[in-house]
Design goal:
The chain has 225 residues and is mainly beta. It folds into two domains: 133 residues, Elongation Factor Tu (Ef-tu), domain 3, CATH 2.40.30; 62 residues, no CATH class. Helix content is 6%, strand content 33%. Strands 1-2-7-6-3-8 form a six-stranded antiparallel β-barrel. It has a four-stranded mixed β-sheet with strand order 9-12-11-10. A two-stranded antiparallel sheet has the order 4-5. It starts with 9 loop residues before the first strand and ends with a strand. It comes from Conchiformibius steedae.
Amino acid sequence: MTAYTVRPIAYVRSPYTQKFGIPRQPQLVPAARADIVFEADFPADCVRGLEQFGCVWVQFVFHDALNEGWQTTVRPPRLGGKAKMGVFATRSPHRPNHLGLSLLVLDSIGNENGRIVLHCSGADLLDGTPVLDVKPYIPFVEARADAAAGFAPAPPPRLAVCWLDTPPPEPVRALIEQSLSQDPRPAYHHDPQRRYRAVMAQWETTFRIAEHTVIIESCQTLQSN
């Protein structure tokens, strides 16, 4: 068997600095904006023409799960965390090679100190994620509305969001609301009094979930710490 060596071409700059709270699929949180910052040795010619496309495929490494190994079967949250499915029938990060694939909206292409930067939205990526490849999304080839969707035939239902604390300014408020409305809890958690902590875009939120509603009890900025 031939061994292959790959190296990151870029890294992700994301509002999600911890795994908890990251949407389980791309596009579920339109307010989640992320930048793909290329390594310095990739010239601007590498993305010539990419601005003509509306979305990009981003292939990356689940770097924060590398030490957790992989499993032949996993319990998808969409099935309530009870039924097991083969790892290749899911998008679990616990895979043999820990590779992920996200479809992001390409908002614009910029340059920072000579580095290519792709400004994207609808991200489901952890800050610092290594990117292995970027490809343009081609709708007539890759969009199949008639394809069977297995146990995930539609987007998950959204929870209502109730603020008990003063919300942060936009666009952070939209990011937090859209992210938490996806119910980031492990599927087996059902205690309405249990409190959770999530950090997004340098804002720390404490919340609980009861009767299909996210109740945000506090939200404080971490930028001054």
